[in-house]
């Protein structure tokens, strides 16, 4: 195809083994072609662009020097792994990235032996590399063998507690392993915090200059093949000789910082490390997010995540939106509340844009906290803000809140602190796939004593819930809402304060009641319309609350109908399970009442469009309709047609 770049050298490389005969000059050429191919592929798929472009040279150097898949190369988050995928037998499918049946946008063990450890949530790579190195030394057996263990971790991901827990352990175990700190001075947003300033100082102050003499002497000890890169190796040894970096205090040898776009630096340093390293070693590499593609380099987020785009202009091809996004509605309402109440504050874990808090950060910077990729800390920090008389909103994606769960239980719920959890990306999220699905929060929040759990059925409901949460000082409260745009409903002029634990009736019908929790309400309405053509008019109710349940409304629905069906965008153990528990406790089933609960299936659903994923989950309107027909004992649509 004409928009494909010309890549004569890359065309000869199906796997890293094919790179072994290439000269250093050819590797430079290969990196150039790999960059063009990555840009071209992402222009057709959308996805993570900037991070991959920042590690092109690093990817080439690592695969040239090490022997994957025997050597375990572990990409942190792994949103930067597209170039790695191109070099590891997946180039032919690279334009299927993030689509149904295509390549995952992250590393995935089931996808390739070159992906020894899957990721998508950050800061797991050092733990994983340490595990592989210990398994190797204990004689673990895997089909590809166990060689080096190499983690590549960004400066953003390095700010998380897990990375430090792993380094602490690695320094103690003193196993040979390599951590490459890919420092591009960016997270999704500019990185925050003391670590970020520390890393900047490491290279800004050039602290190693005075040890040049030591390095000079040491370089001559290098074995012959590495002489060629002696100058770079000298720099490395300078770092090793100096001591005094935080990483060394943790038991790592520290090398760097080196230019991560210069193969003349990367190759000799990696070769020397491979030849000589003992114990854990950290190589500090400086890169530029979005490197080599001007529209990414100059974008506010350095091309972190992009829609499909025009390769020449960089212009993104986004479908026009008809309704405001849930995220935007939350952000706007929060700012309105913050204007009126100076106790309102907000916490995000490195996602000010993604969670809609950018506006709050701009208007009320002293009350909006980006804590870095540190969900655990963020939750406990919010708990203490609440204990200190503030009204914190802890805005996190459902999937990332998982990481702060003990803190939700131990610091928030047990102490009954009024933290307001704004849970974004609830339910299935699309192209990011199973790792990012917000499947479990209804379950893991609703089972906590004293936690109030709401789900917005549409953007107007979300407005009410943000205000209800702000006014709720009695204990913790959570509200969830999905990714993407709302239903296009009319927005309320005045927000309502919802009565805690009360649902609302949508339509009154006969025989069967559909009780929706969250945005499946739209599909439920569609199903009801289809059913009405078959002479069935279901009752529809919006539960609003999974905790506390609206006992009265639910028991009335039971009393007035033959059957009740719950539907929610979450895994088993959530809203429907609580309703089932209520009905069991009330003895409703003793009399043979018909109850069904539609939840996400007990599988991890791979990436596709959200609609498609809900189809796989059997939770779209036709499946709701089929469920009604089944529970009422009416022949299913399929059988009727047959
Ligand atoms: C636990 C967790 N929280 C939040 C995210 C969302 N997230 C994805 S990439 C990213 C930034 C990572 O920054 P960095 O490690 O510096 O890598 P870069 O993108 O700059 O290459 C964030 C916050 C995540 N993947 N995992």
Bound molecules: thiamine diphosphate
> What proportion strand?
5-15%
Q: Show unreliable segments.
A: 205-228
What is the first-to-last residue Cα distance? 44 Å
| Strand segment count | 17
Strand order of the largest sheet: 7-6-8-9-11-10-15
Question: C-alpha Rg, in Å?
Answer: 27 Å
Describe the global form: globular
What kind of sheet is the major sheet?
7 strands, mixed
Oligomer class:
single chain
What is the tally of helical segments? 25
**Helical proportion, percent range:** 25-40%
| Overall average residue pLDDT | 92
What can you see in these coordinates?
- 39% of the residues lie in helices and 14% in strands.
- Strand 16, helix 22 and strand 17 form a beta-alpha-beta unit.
- The protein has 25 helices and 17 strands.
- About 4% of the residues have low confidence.
- The protein has a 7-stranded mixed sheet, sandwiched between helices.
- 54% of the residues are buried.
- With 642 residues, it is an alpha/beta fold.
- The chain is globular and about 80 Å long.
- Bound molecules: thiamine diphosphate (TPP).
- Thiamine diphosphate (TPP) binds next to helix 2.
- The site of thiamine diphosphate (TPP) has 24 residues, from helix 2.
């Amino acid at each position: 195809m004409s928009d494909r770049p010309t890549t004569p050298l890359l065309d000869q490389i199906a796997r890293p083994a094919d790179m072994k005969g290439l000269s250093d000059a050819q590797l430079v050429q290969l990196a150039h072609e790999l960059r063009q191919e990555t840009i071209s592929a992402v222009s057709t798929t959308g996805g993570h662009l900037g991070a991959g472009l920042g590690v092109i040279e690093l990817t080439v150097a690592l695969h040239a020097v090490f022997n994957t898949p025997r050597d375990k190369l572990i990409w942190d988050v792994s949103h930067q792994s597209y170039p790695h995928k191109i070099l590891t037998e997946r180039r032919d499918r690279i334009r299927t990235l993030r689509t149904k049946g295509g390549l995952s946008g992250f590393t995935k063990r089931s996808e390739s032996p070159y992906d020894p450890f899957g990721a998508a949530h950050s800061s797991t790579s050092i733990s994983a590399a340490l595990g592989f190195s210990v398994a190797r030394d204990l004689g673990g057996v895997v089909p590809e063998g166990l060689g080096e263990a190499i983690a590549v971790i960004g400066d953003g991901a390095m700010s998380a507690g897990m990375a430090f827990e792993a380094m602490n352990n690695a320094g103690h175990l003193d196993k040979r392993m390599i951590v490459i700190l890919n420092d591009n001075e960016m997270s999704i947003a500019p990185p925050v915090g003391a670590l970020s300033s520390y890393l900047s100082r490491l290279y800004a102050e050039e602290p190693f200059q005075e040890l040049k003499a030591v390095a000079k002497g040491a370089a001559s000890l290098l074995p012959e093949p590495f002489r060629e890169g002696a100058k770079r190796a000298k720099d490395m040894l300078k770092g090793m000789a100096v001591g005094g970096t935080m990483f060394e205090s943790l038991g790592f040898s520290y090398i760097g910082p080196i230019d991560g776009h210069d193969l003349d630096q990367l190759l000799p340093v990696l070769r020397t490390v491979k030849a000589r390293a003992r114990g854990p070693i950290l190589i500090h590499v400086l890169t530029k997010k979005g490197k080599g593609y001007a529209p990414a380099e100059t974008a506010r987020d350095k091309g972190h995540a992009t829609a499909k785009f025009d390769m020449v202009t960089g212009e993104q091809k986004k479908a026009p939106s008809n309704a405001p996004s849930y995220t935007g509605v939350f952000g706007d309402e929060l700012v309105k509340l913050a204007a009126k109440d100076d106790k309102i504050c907000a916490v995000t874990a490195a996602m000010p844009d993604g969670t809609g808090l950018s506006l709050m950060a701009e208007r009320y910077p002293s009350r909006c906290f980006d804590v870095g990729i540190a969900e655990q800390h963020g939750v406990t920090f919010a708990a203490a803000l609440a204990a200190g008389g503030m009204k914190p909103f802890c805005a996190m994606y459902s999937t990332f809140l998982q990481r702060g769960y003990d803190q939700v239980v131990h610091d928030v719920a047990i102490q009954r602190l009024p933290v307001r959890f704004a849970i974004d990306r609830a339910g299935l999220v699309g192209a990011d796939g199973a790792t990012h699905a917000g499947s479990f929060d209804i379950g893991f929040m609703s089972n906590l004593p004293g936690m109030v759990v709401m789900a917005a059925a549409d953007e107007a409901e979300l407005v009410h819930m943000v205000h209800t949460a702000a006014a709720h000082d009695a204990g913790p409260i959570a509200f969830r809402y999905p990714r993407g745009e709302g239903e296009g409903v009319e927005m309320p002029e005045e927000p309502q304060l919802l009565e805690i634990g009360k649902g609302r009736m949508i339509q009154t019908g006969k025989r069967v009641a559909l009780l929706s929790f969250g945005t499946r309400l739209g599909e439920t309405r569609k199903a009801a319309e289809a059913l009405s053509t078959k002479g069935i008019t279901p009752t529809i109710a919006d539960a609003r609350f999974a905790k506390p349940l609206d006992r009265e409304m639910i028991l009335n629905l039971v009393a007035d109908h033959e059957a009740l069906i719950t539907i929610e965008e979450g895994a088993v153990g959530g809203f429907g399970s609580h309703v089932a528990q209520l009905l069991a406790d009330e003895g409703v089933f003793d009399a043979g009442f018909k109850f069904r609960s539609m939840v996400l299936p007990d599988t991890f659903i791979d990436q596709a469009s959200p609609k498609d994923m809900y189809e796989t989950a059997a939770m779209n309107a036709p499946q709701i309709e089929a469920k009604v027909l089944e529970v009422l004992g009416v022949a299913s649509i399929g059988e009727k047609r047959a």
